[in-house]
Amino acid sequence: MPASRLSLQLYSLRDQLRTDEEGTLARLGELGLCNIEVFDFVDRPQELADALARHGLTARTGHAALAAPDRTPDMLRRTFDAAQMLGLETVFEPMVPAARWAEAREIDRTASLLNEAASLAADHGLRVGYHNHAQEFTPTIDGVNAYDRFVRRLDAEVGLEVDIYWASAGGRDVVGLLRRLGSRVRALHIKDGAVIDDPHTSGAPFDIALTRQVPAGQGEIPVDAALAVAPGTAWVIVEFDHYAGDMFEGVAGSVAYLHKKGIV
């Protein structure tokens, strides 16, 4: 996968960032990382850009709300202005709640909101995309999986960031999914652990520890096969929602595994 570039979703280290942002960013270079994916960046783009620069880190992708029903063009412009300040190339909507995947009208509205965001992003020299969890794959509408319906209604300019852990939790054959999506996939979230049922649509309390997430290659998710069928993906992004051990050690394990695969 020579065209891919390794990154880390900073959300993995959210607790560490809250207590020691400078020390946390400094350690990422020690792990062999130079690219990161940002989150919660809209309110502090210059501050964050300066912090990343101090530690030789570059952000080319980020997560920010793009498809909320109450979002306005001004809110989008503020997001894209912040993204430009950070030097991002693509902003991904990180999550749309489960209730909005249960009805065709809501699925179609989500696609429409992202299509509109893509048009405005282009004026800023940016692209947008969508990052999945599990709830997108659970409902079936008129015989069509909700995620498939959604993708069919997206403009070609809207990319997909496929989280292989959560797609697997949604009951999908993630390798088959990636094969079908082809070049629509712009980024992969590499996350390994236990294969569980979708917790987002059950309505029951969920303990994130039940994901039993581990460094890449040590769990039940078909990481190698997923990488093999998505060789043109621009970004390969490590992420943990939870790790029972030291998070830096977990990240280091995934980074080392991907380096052995030639992903740097």
Task: Describe the 3D structure.
The chain is an alpha/beta fold and 264 residues long. It has a single domain, classed as Alpha-Beta Barrel (TIM Barrel). 38% of the residues lie in helices and 16% in strands. It has an eight-stranded parallel beta sheet. A two-stranded antiparallel sheet has the order 6-7. The termini are close together.
Which stretches are poorly predicted, pLDDT < 50 over at least 5 residues? none
- Percentage of β-strand residues: 15-25%
Tell me the total number of β-strands.
10
Q: Rough shape?
A: globular
Number of domains: 1
Helix/strand-derived category reads alpha/beta
End-to-end separation in angstroms reads 10 Å
Task: Name its key features.
264 residues, alpha/beta, TIM Barrel, 8-stranded parallel sheet, two-stranded antiparallel ribbon, 38% helix, globular
Brief digest:
By secondary structure, the protein is of the alpha/beta class. It is built from ten helices and ten strands.
Give the arrangement of secondary structure elements.
Layout: E1 5-8, H1 14-19, H2 21-30, E2 35-39, H3 45-54, E3 58-63, H4 73-86, E4 90-93, H5 104-123, E5 127-131, E6 140-141, E7 144-145, H6 146-152, E8 159-163, H7 164-169, H8 174-181, E9 185-190, H9 223-228, E10 235-238, H10 247-260
Parallel strand pairs: 1-10, 2-3, 3-4, 4-5, 5-8, 8-9, 9-10
Antiparallel strand pairs: 6-7
Helix pairs in contact: 3-4, 5-6
